[in-house]
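Tutorial, part two.
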Amino acid sequence: MEKQASTPKFQRLLSHNSKRRLQYQLSEAVTPFVSSTFIDFEDEREYLVKKVFPQLNLLCVEKGSRFEPLDLRWGISEAQKEKGHLIQSCLDYVRHCSPYFICLLGERYGSHRDPKSDLLPRSLEGLGSDPDWLDKNLVVAAVTGNYSFILNNTDNHFASITELEVSYRLTLQNPDKMFFYLRTPKDFSHIQDQFERNALLKKFGSESEYAAKRLKNLKRKIRSYVPNSQIREYTTVEQLGKLVYDDWSNLIANEFFDVSTSLRGAAMEMYQEWQAHAAYQQTLGDDSRYYTSLNASLGFEMDKIIDSVYFKVSEGFPSEESLSSYKDCLSLLNKSTLSGYKDEAGSILAVRGSRGSGKSAFLAYLSKKRSDLPRTPFCAGVKVFFHFVGCNSQSEDLANFMTRYIDEMTEFFLESLPARDQQKCLIDSFHAAMCFGPSVVFLDGMDQFTSSPQFSLKEVSQSRSRSSSVKVKVKLFLRVSLNSVFTLF
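Running the prediction step on this input gives:
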């Protein structure tokens, strides 16, 4: 593969439209795929997950992004392996996480076919009725997963899964965003107990002469494709941690614009609050690494995912229409440009269901879909606001939700930053903000709010009912538990 020069990308997180209205943008996450053999890299992976990756995530947060490495120690099920989808899933994840890639190599080569075996068949039918699990996974990946390079090169018929991951990544673009960490061979000669020494050699040493030769060739291949500055050698996990932190902190610094240089005071507070909820929305609603096919699963009837979805009209809730399909929900979502306001003012879509039924993921997906609607002149005049209870330590506070809504509505429609210390009555300001202009509100976990020391959710609702003569332009999409009663807007 021809090496390509890479130009550092400085992403400005804030842009202004023709009306000079501040628009927040969440940078794409840094999502390195972590490739290695498993049994001999348990300590390294654990150290990175607990000590290094959280620090890198803090750096990303300052840049309006997040650091989300993919570690497949917990991501591949036995069922995927038995069905032949293990290798296909691994390569899918490498592509999804590209251009970011972390590879750890020691002395083990990894799972591979016996070099004395026959070549793989070129079709699923050729596998027979009871194929070896690795044969099945290789052919399925090549035939149904469109990874034909596995069968086209006979050398790959006997390649380990780790080598296939590395080889595939080397064919993709942006070679400057992958790093390889090579562990120096461990020396166990000082261990007196022969049983213990043999156990360690079995865990960390090469599986065979053939495996050692394949691994040596793989490392030679990596050095021919990747600059020496992206290939590191280490001995201890602490040394590895420092190398990983230095490499990826430099990449993050060059990849993203530092938002703190443009925002100060209340503006920075607003952005940081928005960022926490936006990152949560992205993770739940648009992350195919954790949801094999979120779009496909939501295509089934809604009652297979949640217990009930109701479309209610806010004033007195006089009517109730069950939405039985995902298509119905998207139809309603697409109508939420708030046209025909007199007939549809204040409509509410409530997603209710038992714990773990997918309500939050569904609402996150809906909110992202609404946020991504084409920026037509009419849609551009509608504020999309989302709040996910539980995404950070302040999100459960009712006053935090109300303050965020006031801030973003004020900035969006009045084109000025609110003075938080001058808000004499939060409840009145909250209700006033509803009248600034049309808004679509996605609220996840409304029944999990903790009451503010000054007021409760009930008081906010009662205050709203006393001023019901004031017309508001709000559509509310919310997620609550199965038996919750909801009144807010």
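The longest strand covers residues 474-481. In part three we will examine how such features are distributed along the chain.
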